[in-house]
Amino acid sequence: MSDPMAGLPPRFLRTPEAARYLGLSGRTLEKHRTYGTGPTYRKIGGRVVYAIDDLKAWADLGAKTSTSDPGKGTVLPAKKHPVLRPYAGQERRDRPRESSDHAAQTPFRARPA
């Protein structure tokens, strides 16, 4: 039997359909999109759409065979995650802050230009 989808372009799903496909709520998928933790999406004419292949690839990141299996990757929860700053791990270059008592007793001195 031939595939009825053969020859047709890939189908795109809107957020509610994509959420149902993944077994999530539409709001959870929106949060994933906001935080950058979700599947790849496209904006077509202001509408957000998801390719089924992208949804499957994202869900497959969480595939595991046991609780001790590290798997291929991790599907992060739909929440904010710390963003690495460009100089993360490097020492700060600015001066340490002076205590408020010392700052109040020290007259203001302009820095030379």
Topology:
Blueprint: E1 12-14, H1 15-22, H2 26-35, E2 42-44, E3 47-51, H3 52-60, H4 100-105
Antiparallel strand pairs: 1-3, 2-3
Helix pairs in contact: 1-2
Describe what this molecule looks like in 3D.
- With 113 residues, this protein is an alpha+beta fold.
- Helices cover 29% and strands 10% of the residues.
- The chain contains 4 helices and 3 strands.
- It has helices at 15-22, 26-35, 52-60, 100-105, and strands at residues 12-14, 42-44, 47-51.
- Strands 1-3-2 form a 3-stranded antiparallel beta sheet.
- β2 (42-44) and β3 (47-51) form a beta hairpin.
- α1 (15-22) crosses α2.
- The relative contact order is 0.13.
Please sum up the structure shown.
The chain has 113 residues and is of the alpha+beta class.
Report the average pLDDT across residues: 77
How much beta, percentage-wise?
A: 5-15%
Terminal Cα span: 80 Å
Biggest sheet strand order reads 1-3-2
In N-to-C order, the SSE pattern is EHHEEHH
Helix content: 25-40%
Radius of gyration: 25 Å
* C-alpha geometry: extended
The biggest sheet amounts to: 3 strands, antiparallel
Counting DSSP E segments of at least 2 residues, the number of strands comes to: 3
Stretches where pLDDT is under 50 for at least 5 consecutive residues are none
- The chain-level structural class is alpha+beta
Tally the helices: 4
